[in-house]
Amino acid sequence: MRDVNINTKINSFIQLIEKQKSVIIVGPTKSFHNFNFNKNYITIPPNDIPHIFVDGGMHFNKPQLLKPFNISANAIISVGDNDSYKGNKKIDIPLNPIKDFSDLSMAFKILKQTNNNKLKKILLRGFLGNRKDHEIINLGETHHFLKSKSNLQVQFDSEILGVAEGKYNFKISKSIFSIIAFEKTELKFSGDILYKIERLKKIKPLSSYTLSNKVNGTLKIMCSKPVFIFLNSI
Fold first, then answer.
1. Which residue in 55, 94, 147, 170 could disulfide with 219, CB within 3.0 to 4.6 Å?
2. Do 135 and 78 share a domain, yes or no?
């Protein structure tokens, strides 16, 4: 049975997320400082944004790293099974390492408690660049989470941007991009891009139809199911 204090902490954390409309999830990553907020495709204000530290991401839960972002204690929560975190801090929501779900999926489970209209942006730091099977599963769990939301953006560092069903308008500097769906969706996109789909078109899962496009400026997109935009700067 979960500790009453943990339930209280989670409830306070959810309320803060709904107030800020954003959350940052930190997983295993090489450097906390390499991420530049000013170069993100999603703009998240730096002050007191709630952080979820997922297992190995706890290595970056340090006062000297968090101080520039003015993050208060009630804006931080951690979850994981301690298989990639080797530090001394206690994880708020400890998980049994013998389980049939990932630590990231538990972080999403916490976020599912938010009001659908109040959570707008999620920034994931880390979760890419290590095991390929982990990367694919992380994208899969993100896809399942996005299916329960609308008009929500989830960004993996500066490389992948996932969106739930809805309409979006992004400003992106010179990049090659591909749009990938994990299930059938209706999709259209336009803007300062090389190839456009002006009317809703049915796109198959993992189709090459939306492979390798170019953008320099505005990207407008509308989709009926979650899709992922893979970004490559040029």
1. 170
2. yes
- For residue 139, name the pLDDT band (cuts at 50, 70, 90): very high
Distance between CA 43 and CA 172 in Å, rounded? 12
The pTM of this model reads 0.87
Task: Say whether both 27 and 83 belong to one domain.
Answer: yes
- Digit-coded pLDDT (tens) for 25-38: 998 776 555 544 44
